[in-house]
Design a protein that fits this description.
Number of strands: 15
Low-confidence stretches: 1-5, 396-404
Structural class: alpha/beta
Order of helices and strands: HEHHEHEHEHEHEHEEHHEEHEEEEHHEHH
CATH topology of the largest domain: Aspartate Aminotransferase, domain 2
Strand order of the largest sheet: 2-8-7-6-5-3-4
Number of helices: 15
Distance between the termini: 39 Å
Bound molecules: pyridoxal-5'-phosphate
CATH superfamily of the largest domain: Type I PLP-dependent aspartate aminotransferase-like (Major domain)
CATH architecture of the largest domain: 3-Layer(aba) Sandwich
Shape: globular
Number of domains: 2
Strand content: 5-15%
Helix content: 40-55%
Largest sheet: 7 strands, mixed
Length: 404
C-alpha cells in the first residue's frame, strides 16, 4: 500500500539505522495527514485566482485552510496571509509606517536580543531605527528595559517571540502588549516555536501581528502565515504583482504546501494537550538523566516557564560542535545553539544575551522532542550522554572524534 517515502518507510529507515531524532525545534517530520493532503492537492489543476470550476475548487481548498489556521489561533480567516514560511512572515510584519489605533505611524523597531535572525535583521526597517531589548539571565525579556525604551518616545513596533527556539523560554508577551499599546505602538509576536507546542490565542496575547510556520507542526517546509489583526492599518505589500492574499502578498499560492499546512494544524490541534503532557514528562526524565550523569550540567532557563519539549544545556568545558558530532556518530540528532559561520563557531546570541561568556555560550546543546518521541529515545539520549560526556569533557576534539 505504501511506497518509498511513506511514513512506514521512514519508521523502518530510523529503526534500521538506529537513529533517534531529537531536533524537533529545527524541523519536524511531515505528518501522514499533511502528506496525504499535499499529494491530493498536487493533482488538482486549477489556479486559485481563476474564476472557472477548477480555479474555484482550489480556492475553496486554500480558504478552508485559512479558516482552520484562524480557528487554531482564535483569529479570523481574513487576517491570515500565507507566506513562504516563518522568515517571510517576520520580514513582512516588520515594516515601518504601520499604524495602530493611535493613528501615528511606527518608525522605530524594538526587538528582543534573543529573537530569530529574521527578526534581528530588522525586517524592512533601516538599521538606525532598530533597538534591542535586553533579556534577564534566565532568558526572559527585561520589561524594565523595554519601559525605558518606549516611555516618552514616538510609538514603536515591538517584536517579541512567544517562545525562544534555543532555550524554550516563554516570553511575557501579554505584559509587553499592555506596555506597547499604552505607548501607542504595535506588537509583533513570532510564535513559530510556540505554535503546536502550547495553546495560545492571538486575542489573549493581544498581538497585532503574529508569525507561524508549517514545518514546526508537521507540515511541509516553505510555507507559513502572518496573522494581521484588524488593529493594524497601512500595511503595505513588499511583494507586489497579481493581488493575491488581498493584495498583501502577491504570487500564486503554494496550494499543496497550504493543504499540508492545514492538515498538519488540524492533526496537531487534535492531540496537542496530550502531546504536551507527554513531551514534558519525557523532557523532565531526560533532564534528570542528564543531571545524574553530569551533576555540574547547566540547564538554561530551567527556572522559568518553558516549552514542554526543549532542553538547552551545557557543562563547563564542553564544545558544542564536537558534542553534536559525537551524538550524531552515535545515531542521535541534536543541535548546538551556537552558529557556524566562515568555519568558525560563534557563541549563541541567545546565551550571550543571557550574560554568558563566550566559552559557555559556545557550549549549548539543544535537545528538542516531539509528538512521536518515545521513552526509548530518551533512554538512548541518556546512555549516549553517559558514554560521551566523560570523553568530551576530558579529551581534545580529535581524540573524541577518533573514538566515536
Ligand atoms: N522564528 C523562529 C523562532 C524560528 O525558530 C524559525 C525557524 O527555526 C523561524 C522564525 C523561521 O521559520 P522558517 O524556517 O519557516 O523560515
Amino acid at each position: 500500500m505504501y511506497g518509498v517515502g511513506s511514513i512506514q518507510f521512514k519508521v523502518l529507515f530510523y529503526a534500521m539505522n538506529n537513529r533517534v531524532y531529537l531536533d524537533w525545534n529545527a524541523t519536524t517530520p511531515l505528518r501522514r495527514e499533511a502528506r496525504e493532503a499535499m499529494v491530493a492537492a498536487l493533482d488538482v489543476c486549477g489556479n486559485p485566482s481563476s474564476v472557472h470550476a477548477e480555479g474555484r475548487a482550489v480556492r475553496m481548498l486554500v480558504e478552508r485552510v485559512r479558516h482552520a489556521i484562524a480557528d487554531a489561533i482564535g483569529g479570523q480567516a481574513q487576517q491570515v496571509i500565507f507566506t513562504s514560511g516563518g522568515t517571510e512572515a517576520n520580514v513582512l510584519a516588520l515594516q515601518p509606517g504601520l499604524r495602530g489605533p493611535s493613528g501615528t505611524p511606527v518608525e522605530r523597531l524594538l526587538v528582543s536580543a534573543i529573537e530569530h535572525a529574521s527578526v534581528l535583521e530588522g525586517g524592512q526597517f533601516p538599521a538606525a531605527q532598530v533597538d534591542t531589548i535586553r533579556v534577564t539571565a534566565s532568558g526572559v525579556l527585561d520589561l524594565d528595559h523595554l519601559r525605558t525604551l518606549i516611555i516618552g518616545q514616538p510609538p514603536a513596533l515591538v517584536s517579541v517571540m512567544l517562545a525562544n527556539n534555543e532555550s524554550g523560554a516563554l516570553q511575557p508577551v501579554r505584559d509587553v502588549a499592555a506596555m506597547v499599546h499604552e505607548a501607542g505602538g504595535l506588537l509583533h509576536v513570532d510564535a513559530v516555536q510556540a505554535f503546536g507546542k502550547i495553546k495560545f490565542y492571538i486575542n489573549e496575547l493581544e498581538a497585532d501581528l503574529l508569525s507561524i510556520s508549517a514545518h514546526k507542526v508537521g507540515g511541509p517546509k516553505g510555507v507559513g502565515a502572518l496573522i494581521l489583526s484588524d488593529r493594524v492599518a497601512n500595511f503595505h505589500a513588499p511583494i507586489r504583482g497579481g493581488g493575491q492574499e488581498k493584495g498583501r502578498r502577491a504570487g500564486t499560492e503554494n496550494v499543496s504546501g497550504i493543504a499540508g499546512f492545514g492538515a498538519a494544524v488540524t492533526a496537531s490541534t487534535a492531540t496537542q494537550e496530550a502531546d504536551t503532557a507527554r513531551m514534558k514528562s519525557l523532557r523532565d526524565r531526560l533532564e534528570a538523566g542528564l543531571r545524574a550523569a553530569t551533576p555540574n550540567a547547566i540547564i538554561f532557563s530551567a527556572d522559568v516557564p518553558r516549552l514542554p519539549n526543549t532542553t538547552l544545556f551545557t557543562v563547563p568545558g564542553l564544545r558544542a560542535e564536537t558534542a553534536v558530532i559525537g551524538f550524531d556518530l552515535e545515531g542521535v540528532a541534536v543541535s548546538s545553539g551556537s552558529a557556524c559561520s566562515s568555519g568558525k563557531v560563534q557563541p549563541s546570541h541567545v546565551l550571550t544575551a543571557m550574560g554568558l561568556g563566550p566559552d559557555l555560550a559556545r557550549g549549548g546543546i539543544r535537545v528538542s522532542l516531539g509528538w512521536s518521541t518515545t521513552d526509548l529515545d530518551v533512554d538512548r539520549f541518556i546512555q549516549t550522554w553517559r558514554k560521551l560526556s566523560g570523553a568530551l569533557l576530558k579529551k581534545d576534539d580529535e581524540t573524541v572524534l577518533e573514538r566515536f
